[in-house]
Every structure is written in structure tokens, then in C-alpha cells.
UniProtKB/TrEMBL annotation:
Residues 53-162 form the Serine aminopeptidase S33 domain. Keywords: Hydrolase, Membrane, Transmembrane, Transmembrane helix. This is Alpha/beta hydrolase. GO terms for molecular function: hydrolase activity. InterPro entries: AB_hydrolase_fold, Hydrolase_4.
Amino acid sequence: MRRFIALLSLVLIALSVWQLEADRTGLTISPLGVEGGTPATLFLNNSGGAAPVVVIAHGFAGSRQLMEPFALTLAQAGYVVASFDFEGHGRNPRPMSGDVSTIDGTTRLLMEETGRVARAALAHPRADGRLVYLGHSMASDIVVRQALEEPAANAVVAISMFSEAVTADEPRNLLVIAGEWETMLAEEAVKAMRLADPQANAGDVVGDPAQGTGRRAVIAPKVEHVGVLYSATALTAARDWLDASFGRDSEGPVAQRGGWIVVLLVATVALAWPLARWLPAGAGAMPPPLSTRRFLIAALAPALLVPLLLAPFEIRVLPVLVADYLALHLGLYGAMTLALLWHWGQLQGQFPARIWWIGCAVALFGIAVLGGVLDRYVASFLPHAGRVVIIVGLALGAVPFLLADGILTQGGKAQLWRVVMVRSAFLASLGLAVALNFEALFFLLIILPVIVLFFLLFGTMSGWVGRRTGLPAAGGIGLGLVLAWSLGVTFPMFDAGAL
């Protein structure tokens, strides 16, 4: 069985990679030099001629990789496509700055960066002088506002848009796309269209794109805020809208990557099971499980106490939004849980010498193997030098937290209700922290889906390691390093003056 699962996982990984790489066939993908050093990528169809430029901007905590379905689809259609990492995001070493609460602060700086990328792309020999801005979520407002100030902007594609800058006739040729399951933003899409025609419905075309007066709202079925980026409906609508705006009849495939990315991630996670089976087996020296009463105390007391204890303090040490608070929350949460477990004798025999190399092996697989997949096909996962201190700071909190989590859940051997209770209590603890200081910690809400996904993917792998080796602490150490890395490369860097 172990060899069969390993072989099947490798076959699915190879098939997924082949399918995903096929989307790049016929394209030249190369760095684009931008004034100020903004990391940017240029996508060109090898058989195309002069064409309009499409500048693609990602949302908050995103990166160029997340927008690749649109970049590949539009490049295959013959457009000159430039995608980039905003300051503070992805590979961009420059932190976000300015006043985040005003249009003339951070928003203005991001608009200027978007404009610099557009000028660099328009200078390419294949650019015909016409320009499109495409942005998702946070960037939807950025591209709308930049288009209003950019004479060369002929069209805007705003995905998951919320922008107060849209008027009845500006920006020109506006296509608004939203996922069916992001209800409020879907309503905003229709609202933007009805500024031009109060009787219009989603899917209608208002005005004439060929004359620069077009407007349309498209609702992509059965997708949410991230899924909309992989929706065939959204990708096709964007390509067709640009063709209508520029009088083109594009050919080329739509980069339907979402399904293959899921297959690749599942197969990569599944590969961890046979690899875990090759680790040295051991019954371990785990003490008997905690009684229900003691377990509930260990699971729930830190969840309640940590946000209450930290609420009075303003914590700004790391140059990443809410990362310093999160590191302290994780560390204090883990320390409290470990103290209770030590008091009840649950740490006895948990730290033999071999846990360190096993923990490092878990971290290596999570960061290098699964992280490499994520970096290539999903979102930026490789840090620049400025993020190293952030990862180290988060590790000081994440390792104790996941060490306690691993021991409390007995390395995957605990009853399912106990595992669910432990993870749900932590998520609720973060929710309570936000409720106590909403203005300062609002962005913690954004990481909740990331942590849920982390528990599902990496928690499953840690359980395989714990059940095989009998060492819950090994998986906890490895997962702590992976969590610190994942959060450290994801959240935007902020200059102190922006907070």
C-alpha cells in the first residue's frame, strides 16, 4: 500500500505539473525592468504582433502568482501582459508606507507604483500604445483610480471590486467581475453597472465598448473571493471584454488551472503519508490521555485568557501588519498549554533526541516541497532577505503553540472531537482578540482561512508523523516552523509610518 500511494502520488504530481506548464506553451515569460525596482513579469505570445498592454495587479496579501490565470489567458490571446508585486507583497522588498486611512496616503503610493509598471510595459516594442488595467480586491480600487488619471487607459477589469471612484461614465470600458458566493461584492458589481443604466442586470452590456463607453457586470457562478480568479467564466469574460474594446478576435486557451492545482496539492500532501511510513516506528512513551475535564481546561483556558491578557497592550515590533501580535498570541497560548500539560505530567518522555531531526524533516517537506509547489503555482512562498527576521519572530510563537497542539491532540491519535475542539478554540481565541480591539487587529480575520487550510493540510501530515513515530512533539516542532514561514511570507510588510 505504501508503495502504491507513493507511485500514485508521483504520477498525479507529474500529470498536474505537465498540465499546468502547458498553459505557458508558446509564451515568453521574462522579468520586466520597472523604475524603483518593483518586481514585475512580462508575458508575451511568441506568435503575436503589436497589441494593447494589460497591467495586472493583485489584492491584499497576494502576489503575481495568484493572478497567473488572467496573465496566461490574456497573453495566449495575444495581449502584452505585465504582472507585478505591490510594495510590501511577494518578492517586493520595499514595505508599504503612507497613511492607510486616506486616499492620498498608501492608496496614492500604490497607484504610482501601478503607473510605473504601466510605463515600463508600454515602452516594450510589442506594445501598441493602448492600455488596460486589471485588478483584484484591494487592487480593484487602485486600478480604477489610476485609470481615471491615465490618458492611455482604454479599459478596466475590476475583480471583486469595491471602489467609490466609479461614476456613471468613468472609468472607460469598465468590466466588473465578482464571485457568486461573495454576495456583497456581487451586489457592488451590479451597482456599478446601474450607475450607467439603472435598468441593467448582471450580464448585460451597457454602452459600446468599441466607443469606450461600455460597462458590464459578470457574476462568476459557484466561486468566492479567491475562486473567482480561477473561474472559466471570469477569465473568458475578461478576454472577450478586451477584444470588444479593441476590435480584436483573440484565439488561445483559457488557463483553467484551479482543478489541476487542487490535484497537485492533494497529491503532494498524499506523498507525505508513504514518506512518514519510512520514518522509524515507535510506540513512544506517551502518558495516558487527559481526563475530559483536564482536556477541556487545557483547550479552553488559553483561548479565553490570552486575548484578555494581551488586549491592553499595543504591540509593534515586527514590520508586518499584526504579525507581532500574532507571534505573541501564539507564544503565550502555547506556553500556557505546555505549562498545564507539564503540571499534569503530559510532557514526560516527549523529547527524545530523534524528535529534532524528525521535526526538521517535517519542516523541510512543508517548506521546500509543498512550499515549492505553492510558490510556482499559487502564491509567493520564497522570502526575500527582509522577511527572515519576520519568520524568526513568528517561529518563537508558532513552535511552542504547535508543540502544545501536537501533544494535546496526541500526535493525531486523540479522538476526533478533541482535535476539532483544540483547533476551533484557537480560531475562536483569535476572533475574540479581534472583537476586543477591532481597529488594530482587523487583519487577523484575513488569516483565519489560511490557518484553517494549514490545519487541514499540514495538520494531516503531522498526524501521520505522530502516529508512525509516537512522537507528537516532532510534528509540532516541524509544523511550527512551517506556520511561521507561511505567515512570514504571506502578510504585507509595512513601514512603521504606515501603521
